[in-house]
């Protein structure tokens, strides 16, 4: 899949916005949206949120996890914040579960279009990029060891679609090639 | 000024909590079992700075920008203050340290640990350590001699020791305490203290007394005690000047003594009686911060201010009062015990505010600081205190935050009057605050060094764009409506109090106007309505202006205003009706109409508030019903249905997670039922940043036993009734109403009644059934009768029948008057279809249907369901039905009053089998599953009581007194039915007639129908171009022209037919009949769409049968 396709899928995720207009419930193939009351938070898919945001029709409320750290909040929340997620990701050898299956896409989309509504946007961008880099490095590493040890199968948990897509096509093709090369080699032996 | 106890607030999680002030007293520092150190600017600080120091923090001390903490990894750490950066570990133990302290100059710290050791460490050089061994149990508390010679320690081994720091020897030891094994099991943590300055005395809390030991001789000089102490004392703390000693007990008592006179000058009780484990004096002011074992933080202000020296001469009083603290200043070694009020007699507000920046929210918000204390008051207090010392019987006194009372008066105490406020605003002393948050928008005020400005933002940007205004006049009050922004400021020395209105919806170029109040008149509250603005002033006047700035009515208020609210033409004013006692406020409310007919609706009635609460929000629901919220979070609403009484509709505290959490109400909507508010963690109001998000709470009336099914349904029913009250009000005042929503609510109510009815039936409570049936509408009563007879409660059915008949006769007399009224209404009202306009429809359709017989919607429903399902796809399917038929159908849907209908809409398909249910209720319970917009038809059928009129909408003049045995038909369905009639009319009516004949199978017809069949030909010959609908219409009018005898004849005919039918019917078993019908139905439908039309006459006839069933007994 192209990254654009994955992003398209990610746009189905729901985010909360505060509209500044009034509109009745709208009925779409994908389901009903609204009603939109000015000043009242409402959940809409990302594509609509971005569209409205671009037309300055709403204010976006970032998802719970899209925050740097717990600092400042009095009561400990069960919800993990990005800093902890990054630290956790670095600490563990395996992939840790992400707050959203489309965390990368959402961060990119929301920060690109609604960074004024997201406090500490730059820090979030860095943190998510860090997490992403860590994960992709892990992915490469595991692919490397997979190929090196000539394993027949491997299982990777908690990968997101976008991450799979970064190596998926390449890896499978590479494995194909290697298989061909190996099978060609063997008769020669 | 009396001492004040601020409400406690959440500081840390449950567990041991320590508290101290920083050197200047500018902030409070706490540490708790959550391992965080928090720095509070003041008690209202909603966003204290947190420093995580470990997993658990046991004790903290602060001096010279160094914060030392004893944490659970057995170390004593330093952090920089206020940055909170770690600055190394001072010392380690093998167990955790229980108490750490600084010496007086901050060069050394001492720490006592659970490993029985005490260490003294130089702050700058942690290698210089001194260890004190000798305790045989964990060390509880320590205290440095201010002269740095001795160190006192208390331990679980029961001893209190004094050590000489220089050679680490034990100078003396007293076996004072109870022995125990562990800090946790210790009865008291025995925080002891040396007198600051000279260090002459060492205070040790021993059980219920504070023992004072003299330095050097180490003999007990005196004991401080009080009769009110019933539990052992936990903590003592000296005031920085060394003159006062505070002690707190494990049951939450705090006492302050003047050590010289041994007089108890202050007594206070913790609001929850939790153990107080931390106590700290403000280095300058007379404040004590305290922390309890639940992690809460509290503040006691103005300690000892209510006190006076022994001089009892009133004249000399004030002077002495002042002198008291002047003298203290001199005496104090620290010399910084600043008198917070230089001139209590002058009552200078400014002084108070400047010197005590930490004044609390509560005080600011409601309690008018009694700055202007008169001499008599001071005397009263002092004599009371003396009295208390004498006979100590004032048990209830100390629990009261204020001691403004008469000498020897032991009765209820007057409550300080709540200050005026604007709804939806946060306290005015905040640098960034909300001036208004309502359903229109938000006004924020920024008042800091760089900027003094007001930001106006509209929720709906189509009203107006966001604006930024300079706030040079220092406006403190504001209101916002869809027409204007209203601002007001209090008077200053040069400038009068001003009302400033920005009428942005004005069509001319001058959008702003300003009005100056007369001298000595301050605006205290403002509000906006539709086309008017109002302000209440300190001269007890309410001034009304038009929104363009014309001065209008003025009226006097019976008392000082608390708050005002406006909506449409209504103005609500809340004012002080009198003095409240024992924490209660005594408020009154006026509600008036400022429209064309000016009238007062509430004439200064007392406002019901929860005990010991004050008002926090006043306003109107979006539909215009007055509401208010008190500080206990109870939302009350005017119940216009029950003689303008107030009904509590929600308790926001029930939704709160924590004790110090609150909901800040911003709006109330009755349709849909929504309470819009902002959740505030650990505060009463939200900060401006980060931008708070609105949450929606549901309403809940405080009915009994809502856990049971009955209670729950009763609550739902009455809530629905209460929240429908606004419809009547709006109708009465000529506003438009949402008919759909109304019929929806009515339907919901009837459903609930029916369920309650069924429940009571099951429980064999027949009397209750009748009571419930009394609340039902006519055709739900029919259902109820049916249900009763089905469940073999014939007696009940009989009674219900009687009742129904009674109702009919009652109603029958009504329509004439109603009609007149209705005409009158129509003249002035925009609302297109009111219940009045529906009455005639009912009359006519019932005219024919009642005489016949019928069956209720239960069967109808079951039979129609397939039709609903089939028709939805029809609108899109091609080829299945002929184009001829589809076109009118879709047209019907579009033109229906239902509004927009989405052909794409995914609506929950009813998968229930179409088997007719034996239970009437089964069908009822299904209705909510359908979404209201699934299609106009579906809506049509959602109303079980709706009978489809075969006759198009008749004129109102055709109204006749007749039976009312069917409920009103909501307009929407009426229209659709009409449309359907036309549609069917498009087909040849012959088809229809034959279809009727085919399907009816000799089912009973109404007299009118029989007549119509005979006379149809006549009508058609007279007017050949009439379609089916018009034919019926014409027929109707002709039928009416007939004399009553003639009509009777037809009716008789019809009856005879139906009776014979009924006899047949009874022979057959009912369920099979139904099944047959349904099967037939389905077959017909599968044949072609034309045949599916036949269901219509079928439906009617089932109706007819049903009513026969209901009435054959009577």
Structure description:
- The complex is a heterodimer of chains A (189) and B (1114).
- Chain A has 189 residues and is mostly helical.
- Chain A is 50% helix and 11% strand.
- In chain A, the strands form two sheets. Chain A has a three-stranded antiparallel β-sheet with strand order 4-1-5. A two-stranded antiparallel ribbon of chain A has the order 2-3.
- Chain A is elongated.
- Chain A starts with a helix and ends with a helix.
- About 4% of the residues of chain A have low confidence.
- With 1114 residues, chain B is of the alpha+beta class.
- Chain B is 30% helix and 26% strand.
- Chain B has 24 helices and 52 strands.
- In chain B, the strands form 13 sheets. In chain B, strands 1, 2, 27, 28 and 29 form a five-stranded antiparallel β-sheet that branches. In chain B, strands 3-4-5-6 form a four-stranded antiparallel β-sheet, with no helix packed on it.
- About 27% of the residues of chain B have low confidence.
- At the A-B interface, loops of A face loops of B.
- Shape type of chain B: elongated
Query: Uncertain regions of chain A: pLDDT < 50 for 5+ in a row?
Result: 71-78
- In percent, how helical is the residue content of chain B? 25-40%
Rg of chain B, Å, rounded: 40 Å
**Average pLDDT, all residues of chain A:** 87
For the largest beta-sheet of chain B, the strand count, sense and barrel status come to:
5 strands, antiparallel
Largest beta-sheet characterization of chain A? 3 strands, antiparallel
- Global geometry of chain A: elongated
Strand order of the largest sheet of chain A: 4-1-5
> Which structural class should the secondary elements of chain A be placed in?
mainly alpha
Organism (chain A): Falco tinnunculus
Domain DNA replication complex GINS protein PSF2 N-terminal (chain A): 2-61
Keywords (chain A): DNA replication, Nucleus
Family (chain A): Belongs to the GINS2/PSF2 family.
């Amino acid at each position: 899949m192209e990254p654009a396709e994955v992003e398209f899928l990610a746009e189905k995720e729901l985010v909360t916005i505060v509209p500044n207009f009034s509109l009745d419930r709208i009925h779409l193939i994908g389901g009903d949206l609204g009603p939109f009351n000015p000043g009242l938070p409402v959940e809409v898919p990302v594509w609509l949120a971005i569209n409205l945001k671009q037309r300055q029709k709403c204010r976006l409320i970032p998802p719970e996890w899209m925050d740097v750290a717990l600092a400042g909040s009095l009561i400990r929340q069960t919800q993990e914040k990005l800093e902890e997620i990054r630290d956790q990701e670095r600490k563990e050898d395996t992939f840790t579960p992400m707050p959203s299956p489309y965390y990368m896409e959402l961060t990119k989309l929301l920060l690109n279009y609604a960074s004024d509504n997201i406090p500490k946007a730059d820090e979030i961008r860095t943190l998510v990029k860090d997490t992403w880099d860590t994960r992709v490095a892990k992915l490469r590493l595991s692919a490397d060891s997979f190929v090196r040890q000539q394993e027949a199968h491997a299982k990777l948990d908690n990968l997101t679609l976008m991450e799979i897509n970064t190596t998926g096509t390449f890896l499978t093709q590479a494995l194909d090639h290697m298989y061909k090369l190996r099978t060609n080699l063997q008769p020669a032996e | 000024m009396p001492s004040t106890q601020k409400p406690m607030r959440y500081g840390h999680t449950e567990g041991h909590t320590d508290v101290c002030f920083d050197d200047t007293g500018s902030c409070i520092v706490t540490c708790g079992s959550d391992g965080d150190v928090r720095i509070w600017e003041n008690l209202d600080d909603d966003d204290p700075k947190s420093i995580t120091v470990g997993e658990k923090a046991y004790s903290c001390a602060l001096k010279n920008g160094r914060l030392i903490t004893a944490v659970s990894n057995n170390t004593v750490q330093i952090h920089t203050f206020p940055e909170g950066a770690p600055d190394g570990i001072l010392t380690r133990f093998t167990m955790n340290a229980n108490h750490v302290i600084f010496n007086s100059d901050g060069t050394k710290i001492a720490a006592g640990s659970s490993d029985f050791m005490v260490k003294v460490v130089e702050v700058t050089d942690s290698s210089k350590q001194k260890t004190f061994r000798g305790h045989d149990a964990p060390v509880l508390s320590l205290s440095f001699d201010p002269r740095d010679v001795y160190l006192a320690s208390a331990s679980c081994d029961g001893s209190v020791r004094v050590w000489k720091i220089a050679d680490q020897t034990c100078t003396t030891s007293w076996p004072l305490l109870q022995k125990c094994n562990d800090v946790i099991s210790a009865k008291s943590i025995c925080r002891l203290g040396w007198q600051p300055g000279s260090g002459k005395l060492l205070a040790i809390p021993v059980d219920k007394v504070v023992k004072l030991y003299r330095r050097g001789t180490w003999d007990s000089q005196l004991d401080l005690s009080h009769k009110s102490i019933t539990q052992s004392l936990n903590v003592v703390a000296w005031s920085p000047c060394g003159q006062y000693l505070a002690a707190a007990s494990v049951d939450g008592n705090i006492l302050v003594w003047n050590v010289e006179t041994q007089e108890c000058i202050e007594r206070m009780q913790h609001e929850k009686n939790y153990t107080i484990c931390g106590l700290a004096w403000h280095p300058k002011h007379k404040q004590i911060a305290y922390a309890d074992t639940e992690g809460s933080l509290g503040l006691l202000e103005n300690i000892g201010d209510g006190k006076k020296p022994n001089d009892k001469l009133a004249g000399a009083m004030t002077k002495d009062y002042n002198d008291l603290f002047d003298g203290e200043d001199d005496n104090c070694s620290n010399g910084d015990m600043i008198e917070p009020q230089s001139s209590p007699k002058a009552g200078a507000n400014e002084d108070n505010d400047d010197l005590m920046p930490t004044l609390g929210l509560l005080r600011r918000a409601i309690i008018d600081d009694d700055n202007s204390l008169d001499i008599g008051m001071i005397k009263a207090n002092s004599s009371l205190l003396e009295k208390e010392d004498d006979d100590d019987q004032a048990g209830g006194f100390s629990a009261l935050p204020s001691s403004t009372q008469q000498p020897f008066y032991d009765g209820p105490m007057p409550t300080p009057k709540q200050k005026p406020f604007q709804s939806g605003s946060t306290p005015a002393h905040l640098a960034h605050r909300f001036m208004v948050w309502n359903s229109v928008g938000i006004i924020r005020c920024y008042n800091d060094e760089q900027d003094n400005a007001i930001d106006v933002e509209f929720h709906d940007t189509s009203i107006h764009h966001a604006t930024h205004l300079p706030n040079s006049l220092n406006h403190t009050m504001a209101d916002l409506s869809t027409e204007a922004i209203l601002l007001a400021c209090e008077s200053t020395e040069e400038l009068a109090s001003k009302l400033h209105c920005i009428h942005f919806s004005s069509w001319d170029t001058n959008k702003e106007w300003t009005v100056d109040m007369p001298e000595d008149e301050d605006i205290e509250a403002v509000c906006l309505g539709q086309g008017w603005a109002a302000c209440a002033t300190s001269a007890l006047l309410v001034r009304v202006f038009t929104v363009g700035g014309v001065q209008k009515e003025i009226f006097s208020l019976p008392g000082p205003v608390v708050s005002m609210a406006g909506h449409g033409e209504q103005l609500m004013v809340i004012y002080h009706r009198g003095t409240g006692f024992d924490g209660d406020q005594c408020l009154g409310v006026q509600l008036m109409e400022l429209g064309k007919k000016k009238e007062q609706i509430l004439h200064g009635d007392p406002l019901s508030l929860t005990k010991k609460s004050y008002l926090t929000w006043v306003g109107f629901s979006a539909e215009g019903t007055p509401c208010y919220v008190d500080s206990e979070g109870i939302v009350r609403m005017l119940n216009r249905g029950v003689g303008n009484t107030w009904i509590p509709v929600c308790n926001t505290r029930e939704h709160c997670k924590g004790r110090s959490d609150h909901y800040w109400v911003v709006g109330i909507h009755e349709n849909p039922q929504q309470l819009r508010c902002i959740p505030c963690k650990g505060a009463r109001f939200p900060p401006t940043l980060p931008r708070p998000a609105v949450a929606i709470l549901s309403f809940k009336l405080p009915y009994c036993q809502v856990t049971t099914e009955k209670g729950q349904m009763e609550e739902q029913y009455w809530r629905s009734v209460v929240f429908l009250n606004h419809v009547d009000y709006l109708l009465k005042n000529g506003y438009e109403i949402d008919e759909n929503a109304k019929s929806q609510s009515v339907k919901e109510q009837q459903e609930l009644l029916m369920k309650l009815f069924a429940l009571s039936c099951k429980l064999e409570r027949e009397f209750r059934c009748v009571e419930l049936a009394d609340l039902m509408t006519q055709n739900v009563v029919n259902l109820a009768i049916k249900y009763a007879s089905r469940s073999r409660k014939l007696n009940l059915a009989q009674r219900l029948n009687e009742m129904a008949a009674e109702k009919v006769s009652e109603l029958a007399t009504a329509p004439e008057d109603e009609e007149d009224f209705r005409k009158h209404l129509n003249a002035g009202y925009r609302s297109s279809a009111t219940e009045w306009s529906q009455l005639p429809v009912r009359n006519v359709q019932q005219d024919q249907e009642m005489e016949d017989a019928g069956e209720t919607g239960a069967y109808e429903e079951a039979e129609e369901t397939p039709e609903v399902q089939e028709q939805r796809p029809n609108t899109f399917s091609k080829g299945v039905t002929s184009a001829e038929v589809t076109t009118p159908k879709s047209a019907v849907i579009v033109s229906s009053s239902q509004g927009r209908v989405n052909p794409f809409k995914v609506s929950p398909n009813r998968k229930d089998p179409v088997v007719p249910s034996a239970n009437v209720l089964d069908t009822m319970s299904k209705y909510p599953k359908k979404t209201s917009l699934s299609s106009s038809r579906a809506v049509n059928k959602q109303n079980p009581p709706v009978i489809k009129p075969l006759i198009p909408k008749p004129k109102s003049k055709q109204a006749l007194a007749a039976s009312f045995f069917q409920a009103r038909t909501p307009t929407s369905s009426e229209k659709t039915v009409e449309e359907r009639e036309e549609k069917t009319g498009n087909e040849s009516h012959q088809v229809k007639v034959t279809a009727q004949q085919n399907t009816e199978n000799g089912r009973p017809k109404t007299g009118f129908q029989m007549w119509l069949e005979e006379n149809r030909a006549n009508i058609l010959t007279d007017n050949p171009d009439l379609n089916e609908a018009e034919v019926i219409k014409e027929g109707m009018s002709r039928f009416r022209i007939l004399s009553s005898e003639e009509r009777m004849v037809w009716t008789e005919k019809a009856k005879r037919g139906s009776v014979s039918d009924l006899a047949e019917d009874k022979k057959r078993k009912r369920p099979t009949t139904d099944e047959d019908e349904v099967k037939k139905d389905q077959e017909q439908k599968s044949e072609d769409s034309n045949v599916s039309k036949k269901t219509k006459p079928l439906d009617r006839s089932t109706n007819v049968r049903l009513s026969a069933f209901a009435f054959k007994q009577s």
